Amino acid sequence: MDKMNNEISVAFTLTDFDCDPEEITARVGITPTKTWIMGDFINKKKTMKYEYNGWKVHSKLDKDADLESHIISVLAQLKPGWESLVKISQSYYTEISCAIYLYSDNQLPAIHFNKEIVQQIIELNAEIDIDLYNFIED
User: In angstroms, rounded to a whole number, what is the distance separating the alpha carbons of residues 54 and 73?
Assistant: First the structure.
């Protein structure tokens, strides 16, 4: 059986705000990929609920693109509302969430952030979270 390719997913997430997520959307002028309100169910099984409001923008790239390209994709989507988003981000929790799913050890992904990416993440007052999921079989 052929090994699957590694997959990467990246998103910008804004949470812990008191207003409706639609107000965030109106203020920044960007349509998010996903929003939720405290108390909404996290999964289809309806076993867990969100403990906070949230607003998220996912990368639009294919999952086989490299990590840096995914981050650039997310930051580019945020550019139209950058000034407003930078102001909002100073008051709430912001994060660049990265998930790397490893299926093949033949092509382990590089984890690299150029200076421009780092500067933009700082402007957004964001933390970086990288989760690695190892599905490589011995």
Answer: 20
Angstrom CA distances, 3 to 69, 106, 112, 136, stand at 23, 10, 25, 9
> What per-residue confidence (pLDDT) applies to 14?
97
Which residue type, as a one-letter code, is found at position 34?
K
Return d(Cα 101, Cα 63) in angstroms, integer. Answer: 10
Residue 5 has pLDDT above 90, yes or no: no
3-state secondary structure 77-109: HHHHHHHHHHHHHCCCEEEEEEEEEECCCCCCC
User: pLDDT for 46-76, tens place per residue?
Assistant: 889 999 999 999 999 999 999 999 999 999 9
Please measure the distance between the N-terminal and C-terminal CA atoms of the chain and give it in whole angstroms: 14
Length of the chain: 138
Return the H-helix or E-strand segment holding 131: strand 126-134
11: burial class by Cβ within 10 Å (0-12, 13-18, 19+)?
buried
Q: How much is the pTM?
A: 0.91
What are the φ/ψ torsions at residue 121 (nearest 5 degrees)?
Answer: -65, -40
The predicted model gives 81-85 an average pLDDT of 97
